[in-house]
Design brief:
8-stranded antiparallel barrel; alpha+beta; Alpha-Beta Plaits; about 25% strand; 7 helices; about 260 residues
Length: about 260
């Protein structure tokens, strides 16, 4: 009986430590704002002059702010960091109810609503991602946000391929690895989706880098071996890989 009780205590302690460790994982949030027609400049001003300061005041850490390189895309991407979901919700509520922020948002919307929609995605870094922090690169560069939707059951295999092969090959071909994420548990598509940020010298440089990467013998073998083991492609044939080129705003912590 004593031995059984001791085993139960050990198991309970292990589970408690594991769950505590999960809770302590830093939480990241990618907020994608779609502005109403012609309102992207107003949204930029609102975020630059008020939102980032208000968020920081209430414990939300801005990492980067980007807009698409396509001139007709009325979107703004904001990546922020939190300690966990409980603190995120409390801090964001405090930010939203802050008198200075409410006044700034009301002023920006006096000639029409600025934001059409906001998409929120909660993320954790993969075990092969570099630490997520604001950083300034050398010279001008463009960023690329790539989102992958896996075939069912193949997210671990895709992450393994990135961990063991893809990330180092990206560096080999002149790409800068930034942040690699999977969706936090409970998020829609958390079992099939991952996303990451790269930096390039230009969009033309990105194309040249990927052309070289796709022909690399190590990559071809890694891809073929992983697909053979999985019984097919690791990403959905249609819409499985989505790429958006971005440029950092002049006020973005990451440039």
């Amino acid at each position: 009986m004593t031995r059984l009780l001791s085993a139960c205590v050990v198991l309970f302690t292990a589970l408690t430590v594991a769950s505590a460790k999960d809770r302590e994982l830093p939480l990241y949030e990618l907020r994608t704002y779609t502005a109403n027609a012609g309102k992207l400049p107003a949204l930029n001003t609102l975020v630059k002059d008020h939102a980032l300061k208000g968020m920081a005041k209430h414990g939300i850490t801005p990492i980067g702010v980007w807009v698409p390189t396509k001139a007709d895309a009325e979107k703004l991407y904001l990546l922020v960091a939190h300690t966990d979901r409980v603190n995120r919700d409390a801090n964001y509520k405090a930010f939203q109810t802050d008198a200075a922020w409410k006044a700034a948002a009301a002023e920006a919307s006096k000639d029409g609503k600025v934001v059409k929609t906001i998409d929120e995605q909660f993320l954790h870094t993969t075990d092969y991602s570099k630490p997520v922090k604001a950083e300034a690169g050398s010279g001008d560069r463009v960023f690329e946000l790539r989102t992958y939707t896996c075939t069912q059951g193949n997210l671990d295999a895709l992450n393994a391929r990135f961990r063991d092969h893809t990330v180092k090959l990206f560096e080999k071909y002149g790409m800068t690895n930034l942040y690699y994420f999977t969706l936090a548990k409970g998020e829609k598509n958390d079992d099939v989706m991952m996303m990451y940020f790269l930096a390039h010298k230009s969009e033309a440089a990105a194309k040249a880098s990927f052309d070289g990467f796709r022909k690399d013998g190590e990559w071809v073998k890694a891809r073929d071996d992983s697909e053979k083991k999985a019984g097919g492609t690791l990403t959905e044939p249609k819409g499985g890989v989505v790429s958006v080129f971005l440029k950092a705003t002049d006020y973005s912590p990451t440039k």
